# Entry
Amino acid sequence: MTVQEMIAEPPMLEIVDLRKRYSETVALDGISFEVRRHEVVGLIGENGAGKSTLLKSLIGLVQPDSGEIRLHGSKVKLRSISQAGAAGIGMVFQEQSLIPNITVAENILLGSEGSGVRGGFYRWKELARRAQVQLDKIGCDIDPRAITETLSFADRQLVEIAKVLAIEERSNGEPVVLLDEPTSVLDADEIELLFAQIERLRKHASVVFVSHRLDEVLRISDRVYVLRNGQTVGEYDPATTDATELHRMMIGRDAQGSHYHEDRQLPVAEAPVRLRVTGATLKGVCQAVSFEVRKGEVLGLAGVQGSGREELCRALFGAMALTSGEIAVDDKVVNFSSPRPAIREGFGFVPAERRTEGMVATMSVAENITLPHIASVSRGPFLDRRAEATVVKHWVEALRVKTPTTSAPLASLSGGNQQKAVLARWMVSGDLRVLILDHPTRGLDVGAKSEVYRLIRDLSDQGIATVLMADSLEETIAMSHRIIVMKDGEVAAEMACDPGAKPSPVDVLEAMI
Amino acid sequence: MTTVHPPGMKPTEAITTIDLRRTTGIRAQVLRFMPIGVLALLIISVSVANPNFLRPNSLLTALDSSTPLLVLAVGAMLVILCGSIDLSVAALASMCSVLVALWVPALGGWAIPAAALAGAIAGCVQGLVHVIAQIPSFIVTLGGLAVWSGIGLIVSGASTIGVTGSELEWAFMRLGPARIPSAALIALAVVGVFALVLWATPLKRWYEAIGNAEPAAAIAGVPVSALKIGAFTASGLCAGLAGGLLVARTYSGAPNLADSLLLPVVAAIVVGGTAITGGYGGVGRTLIGVLIITVLRVGLSVAGVNPSYEQIVYGSLVILAVSLTIDRSKFAFVK
Amino acid sequence: MTTVRPGEAPPAGRGDSERPVRPNRLAAWRRSDRISVFGPPVALVLLIVGFSILNPQFRTMGNFRSILDTAAVLAVVAVGLTFVLMLGAIDLSVEGIMAASALSFALLIANNRNEIDLGFFAVVLAVGIGAVFGGANGFLSTRLRIPSFMTTLGVSAIGIGVATVLFGGVQPTIRSAGVTAWATGDIVGLTPLTFVALGVILLGVGLERYTRFGRYARVVGGAEDLALLSGIPVRRYKTLVFAFAGAIYGLAGVMVTIKLGSGIVAVGSGLNFAAITAAVIGGTLLSGGRGGVLHSIVGVLIVSVLANGLVLIGVDSNFQTAVQGFVVVAAVAITNWPLRRRLRVVK
# Structure
């Protein structure tokens, strides 16, 4: 094919002004890009930039409100994964999407066995042959008759790729392959293998490589798009850009101090140590993690998926079991077998999954707020409903939780108000000492986020030690007194984060990966 | 409704919505009042077909006949409120009926409380296995069903054990000029205690939290394990008591005496408006459910319907009621 | 732990850090897989040897044949139940479906209550009735999204009710000697019904290994969410599995009716639980996607040998149910033990 022919050919995949809005948040706000034949296009963006909604739209799990998806020049409407497959788009999932208890061949051809199954009967030889065709495309020697779960992780990753390539037989021509953060759980050798696979993949397909690892994206892609706040904000040629520039595009405007109430960050270097973690180990997750948090300090905990930070925080709260290590609060060693004793010692925890773990959705605002410290509103074993009403009213007003009545179900409030109510519950007893926040502003609009930041500053003023895991590096840097970066289960770096001398996001990012 | 998301992609906050129709809106109001409405409708229909039904004596007799069911249902309801199920209540009641019959010569009237204690211990064991081994409750109680049945069979030698004498009369007699059944008083006392304790303490909201959102409840410091064990213990206690009440009125204990009560118990709980998925329900609802089942039974016989059809009615009722009250947002996939 | 000041270049590369965490939902299964494949047959052999030593009456050919004849019905039920368990669901409707089809069969074959005698067609109809009940199970749990234990419990009651109505107070007795000969005949020392059971087992194995019906049942049990994502019509296959199981239970009902010579409502009494026990002991896990027909049949043999042997050494037969209950819970507890976690939600 001549260069002119190649240019004249319509792109394999074209996204035009895709939009998707959920009740409170805008996930996609006009995304446009294109992928040409045998191209590897990189897609980068922070959490919340719209990457996962975009991928779900491309694979048929989510229907965009408006905009077009065009494959080979013609518009398509994708309502399910199999429809997307028939149209020619397949995805290699971040976590394995293979059925563990069946053979490799069955997994590769699942749902589209073709001649491998005649009249409901399995023709195993034919099935194995057809699967072998896909495996040959990536040149690996996996036995199609092996039971999937007996394979190593890396081999299963290869089967996933073969499975996606099988789309070629179903659709007219070469597939578009979406790779969703494929390297986040691989080690160095496996990443090299994967890159070799992507090079081979490129001969049979067009690839969209979604990742937040800028160096990898730059290495493998022909072109890179940057996503921010649901929009494509830039298209780059890897040869003419670098990680710093990309990162600046990813986070947009410089962090606004007022949004994060940075002026309220007070120095805490002289304050006594409130929380001391020594040698915390969780088998298979993290190793010998140690750090300290002082009274009134906000410690930012940064790390990518697989760094072990989320699990560590759950273990601090008693929601997961520590294999070994010591936790001390105000110099008293504690050992939590469940969240209950942790709560008694003045711990609080706001989980990332607000809907399933942060709140009891159908219970009222009042009941949710008093749940952890029910003793504060009880006389002995009996509930004191009058005391409860007073306490709840106080906190609802203090935190400006907007709700028609306190007996409305918590799920009926807006996301921001839900989160404020969830925060309020830890303050009810008045003896909160350590607060662990897991992505506290996820899904909140700008105004709600700012209020939550204000609350965190208030708590800081009261001497509460906070461990913060934020969605974005920007948030982590702006809110924290110090940042600890975790990587592969260990503390990789510790950075001071004083107002006026904040580290740059790229520095933190490099330590994370 | 929960949505499916690809492996590795966490659901973002906005994508999934809560099924609020359970607690607000027209559907919720309908669900809340439907059981009472159905009960009223049934009472009216039966009275129209047979005006004698409304006479005090027949009402009291109907109430009296429903007492074992009521006691069983109240205990089992607590387990269902947490989102679990206790399939062994009927078999446990049967086993305890055998124990009562065997213990009357030695313990007199105290045989019933003793059997209730035995039931509580059995229930506690089931709760412990469920919580410690983390096995689904229906498996534990299915196995429990077989174990209690077997124990009942062995201890009784697979035969009915008669009870003579009047030690158990207090559980099956009529009191005062109004001829109020003592069993009804006992049952209502049990129901009253349950209701009071659930309301006055944090227990009701704790159980509802566990049934509605167990992960959130655990993180909020609700003592989930202890409460679950407690629910199973209460269920066992009620089963034991129900077994005793049955012995009082049949003058015998038998290893399969209460076996046929499992389905009516589940039907009563579900028809009364308690969701099988947990998190929504209560003592009052269960009482109404039991009354519905009782009036229905009277109604069927008044209408001259062959008692053989009873099973068909219960089966259909259970399926219908569960499908109406189930909270589908709980399951992405129903097994 | 290094301290990095803003502006300084952090250490490059990933270094020799701990292996990253793998999202691997499979690791916990491997150990229990080995137990489930080799454990049951070994247990069976041990039981046979043990009882042979304890009681010489046990190891006669006559006794072995008797064990197989008795196990035939349980084996048939277990085949049907295995497919339901493979899905990850549970079936509590065995007794109800068996009752309904048993009574239907008894009234459609030459009997003392009416003049109908449909011969072989009566078997077909009875099996068909079982399939209808099973289909109802599948339909209700997939369309109305009711958990299978609840639907099958309800359907079972309906089945018992239908059987009770059909029974009508007068027990229907089979009047055809040709029919009852199936239970009394002698082919190599075993009754013809035992060979029917063998046929059902072979059918089950064939379906499980070579048909989409069987393979997809395994897929749905292995990872239903992923099956849906792959575009498999999960609801259709679930309904088919329940219908198939219902048909099998119907056949079992016919078999017991022939053995007893009459139709009774309690025809399936105890079989539901015995079949669940057999399947679990054999390695067909209640969680789905594991085990299979042959696994369950080994379990059936274990349960049958246990029942026979215990009686021969003088143990009260009432122990049977209690022991079965205990064994099921223990078996599930053992296979489940490595999966325990703090704050894990189990309902």
Q: What stands out?
A: The CA atoms of residues 31 and 395 of chain A lie 41 Å apart.
